[in-house]
Amino acid sequence: MNALLILIPVTLVLAIVAVGIFFWAVNHAQFEDLDSPKVLPLLDEEAPHKDGRVDAGSRAAPASVDKHAAS
Amino acid sequence: MAVTVQDLSRTGPTPIRGEQDDHELSSIFKAYTVSATFWLIFGTAVGLLLAFKFGAPDFWAGKYLTFGRLRPIHTNDVFYGWASIALVGTAYYVTVRSCGTKLYSTALAWAGLWLFNIAAIAGTIALDLGYNWGDLEYREWPWPIRLVFLAALIVTVWNILATIARRESQDIYLSNWYIVGGLLWTCIICLVAVLPWYQYGLGQVTISGYFMHNAVGMWFTPLALGLFYYAIPKVLNRPIYSYALGVLAFWTNLVFYPMLGAHHFLFSPLPWWLQTTAIICSVGMLVPVLGGGANYLLTMRGRYHGRIESYPLAFLFVGVLCYVFGSMQGTVEALRSLQAIWHFTSFTVGHSHFTMYGFVTFAAWGGIYALLPLATGKRPGQLGMAVHFWLATTGVAIYVISLSIGGTIQGLDWVHGKPFIQSVVDMEPYYLWRGVGGILMFLSHLVFVWNVWRMTAGKPGDAPSPIMQSEEAGA
User: Fold this and answer.
1) Is the Cα torsion angle B21, B313, B441, B138 positive or negative in sign?
2) What is the ipTM score, two decimals?
3) Residue B21 with chain A: CB contacts under 8 Å
4) Least crowded by CB within 10 Å, which of B8, B11, B108, B209?
5) Contact map slice: B 366-405 vs A, CB within 8 A
6) pTM of the prediction?
7) A1 CA to chain B: closest CA distance, Å?
8) Can you tell me the distance from the alpha carbon of A44 to that of B162, in angstroms, rounded to the nearest whole number?
């Protein structure tokens, strides 16, 4: 069997799926705000202790984020 | 900073994460890293032996140690043992943390690790016994073993998607796009690569190019880039330069990459238009490569002094440079006029080490050095990271430069119609230098083992985090 007869339909289906995912993402406001999500890696916080106590300052990371870069 | 946690928390309830969850995530991250490190040592020991077989073909030439059996063992084990397991381990950490939640299923993560390892062990044994899929590069493992690897991927993507579904913020952070994109796409190519209906003749050639290059570019590349988008901002304590540029790079990568596989078969009987399409897509890859590379480097700008002080960042920096230059080298190689010289030469071997080692392996190391101490609270010594870094960097530089020069000479010899043996004689010093580079690289891996031991053995510690102080606080 000619591989292209399989590859072309498969590629088309995949392209449609990829475009579908892209539209899903746009419709679910994934790319609405292209600035604030970039701080997500810096928002990391320590897990609360078993008694629910949270260490003081564990949410402090964003406060000390480099302003020069964040502007 | 106008953004607060509350702004980003727009989805429904997120499971509360506790100390136990952090402990489990740390155990998974540790186990993946230790397992990957074993495959790194094994796979590169085999690679080092192979490097010397060029100069001394009769050295250790027993049936089970012939070049033809060991070469696929080297490539498959560093691909599917080392790089895949290491990057999936970091991907779990990155996804869970950037989604501000806990892992969907610890059991699935362990099952994935077992499946990855079973596939690698069975594949290695099968290849050494002489059971293989012939010359189908990077898929020499017999097909049932490839299905075990596929099962590991499916388990992983299920776990990662379910984790993302319970994220804290509305936005799915860029790293997760890369991780999920890479996992889903690799499930597809692994399936396409085992279906039997077109595995002969030119159809097989097409599939070979398709699989071989997508296994590299839609598996290792997105996972390593996803890791960059988390680890670089994390270590610098500074957000990525441009989130929008990252989104553009992700989608253009997805547009161009899947169709460039046929550039491995320029001048072959494959349809000329298919080859041209592959070349056009190879040139198109400059968009995501330069966009992504600029994004990482602009994030690091002004922190040159810190790059030397912080070895996790030094590894990530070399990884970014090799990503940019290695990928651009790939684009250049895909042009017909240059491919005519470099095809079949050792230049290609230099290129694959430039990218798979200089880029992907350095990215994995940088990610492990940056993130594993956050998970375990234990850091390797500064000296250990320094020795690892300089041995590996010097080694890969010698390796890539010698094979690039030697490969070009080899190709020119062939183009000028010299006797084949002339090209072998001309290559001899470059094969020797490649071996020297290989020794340095392998020694660096032994130091890495020591560093992994320092980061994982014993009880969780409370070492200072590798995250750098932000400029106003630190300088």
Assistant:
1) positive
2) 0.78
3) 47
4) B11
5) none
6) 0.91
7) 6
8) 20
